[in-house]
Amino acid sequence: MASWLILGGGTLLLLVGLGWLGRTAPGRVRSVLLGLAWLLLAAVGVVLLLTGRVAGLAALLVGLSPWLARALRLPQLWRLLRDGAPAAAPPPGGMQAMSRAQAYAVLGLAPGATPAQVRAAHRRLIRANHPDRGGSTWIAAQLNQARDLLLR
């Protein structure tokens, strides 16, 4: 059993060492980590069954059930760990008109940026904050609104 823990820990360290976790979408990371967790759980369960420790297997399943429930919400946790803050919630009142100065600030650009710079900043930010990759729909809408305003 200890060898499985060492193997799982070594695999995780290898993935971190290669930078895979930092470059991969949160949804994909969740799938891989859940797969590793299920593999480890199955291996430990088989070892417990083969050694006649059925009570240990039952305790393992009961003990891991809350963890597995939390693991299903891993993209939010991954985003919190990666960005250091939860995704911003929309302000009360919904979408409001954005000024050009606010649009430059949203995209992290200096006033007077070229259309190519606006597109590049939008592309970079939307890639990191797109709802399909665990981002906030409100942030994506703000980024799109800022891009549209500056490219008019």
From TrEMBL:
<feature type="domain" description="J">
    <location>
        <begin position="102"/>
        <end position="152"/>
    </location>
</feature>
<dbReference type="InterPro" id="IPR001623">
    <property type="entry name" value="DnaJ_domain"/>
</dbReference>
<comment type="similarity">
    <text>Belongs to the TIM14 family.</text>
</comment>
<protein>
    <recommendedName>
        <fullName>J domain-containing protein</fullName>
    </recommendedName>
</protein>
<feature type="transmembrane region" description="Helical">
    <location>
        <begin position="37"/>
        <end position="64"/>
    </location>
</feature>
<dbReference type="InterPro" id="IPR036869">
    <property type="entry name" value="J_dom_sf"/>
</dbReference>
<keyword id="KW-0472">Membrane</keyword>
<keyword id="KW-0812">Transmembrane</keyword>
<keyword id="KW-1133">Transmembrane helix</keyword>
